[in-house]
Amino acid sequence: MARGTGRGGSKGGGSKGGGRKGSGITSGARNVTTRVKTAKGRKTSSTRWLQRQLNDPYVAEAQRLGYRSRAAFKLIELDDRFRFLKPGQRVVDLGAAPGGWTQVLVDRVRAGHPGGGRVVAIDVSEMEPVPGAEILHRDFMDPDAPAALKAALAGPADAVLSDMAAPATGHPATDHLRIMALCEAALEFAGEVLAPGGAFVAKVLRGGTENDLLVAMKRDFATVRHAKPPASRADSAEAYVVALGFRGRASAGEGDADADADAGGG
Q1: Which residues fall within 8 angstroms of residue 164, CB to CB, at 6 or more apart?
Q2: Which of 24, 59, 141, 202 is most enclosed, with most CB atoms within 10 A?
Q3: Catalytic-labelled residue, pool 74, 203, 218, 228
């Protein structure tokens, strides 16, 4: 069974506020390219990765704002487009490490403030505390993990978000199947905890199996969308499914959800 792991990125301090201002970042934000010299003992792939990080405007902006990873902007852009997060909500962050999405969630649902929401995050990897969030350090795929999440939620969830990814094998077909298995497990959990009208957001990889997942989501949600936020690198196979208006588990053939294969960003 694939183990759910969090999104990568550099660690840093607490967010200084995502708000609803949007990322305000374009791929051409930096005009000067930083070149990295090949060092003895460093692989060429590592040099390319380092150069990409140094020249990535999202990385620079994440460091400036105190987000723990550039992935925070993916969630900001998705929510700015689909508006599924609101103050006072209960939300679950699956595959949370290092905590970029958790920081955004705490800010947008006002967790830790009077009358604010509640954020419960889980990841198999250790991550630093995020003020306002409850963090569970365990594998989401463990049999007892869903019960632990439900106990921490202390009520129905308004949104379940998954940015989980299995460790890459280098074999595209295998990697696709593993991440889709995590997505399916996340959807199963969402069906158990979401309140009516709730939202489900999950990372997927292009490759075919996602179509079966979309069919299942269409039965349980009023609207299903497929999106690739601008912060998601163009050369990455990742995309996100956004399901809104949870109406409970429906039997096959019921409902007429509005499905959209739009891959544009918000």
Answers
A1: 4, 5, 6, 94, 95, 140, 179, 182, 183, 186, 202, 203
A2: 202
A3: 203
Burial of 210 per CB tally in 10 Å (0-12, 13-18, 19+): buried
Length of the chain: 266
74's CB contacts (< 8 A; 6+ apart) are: 101, 163, 229, 231, 232, 240
Class of domain 72-260: alpha beta
Average pLDDT over residues 134-159: 97
**Tokens 């039997």 belong to which residue?**
251
* Whether the predicted pLDDT of 164 surpasses 90: yes
What is the tens place of the pLDDT at every residue in 33-52?
445 445 455 454 444 434 45
pTM: 0.78
Write down the H helix ranges in the chain.
Answer: 44-54, 57-65, 72-82, 100-109, 145-153, 172-193, 210-220
Phi then psi for residue 102, to 5 deg, are -60, -40
Q: Which tens digits make up the pLDDT trace of 226-253?
A: 899 999 988 888 899 999 999 987 543 4
Residues paired with 120 in a beta bridge: 92, 134
Domain boundaries, the chain: 33-65, 72-260
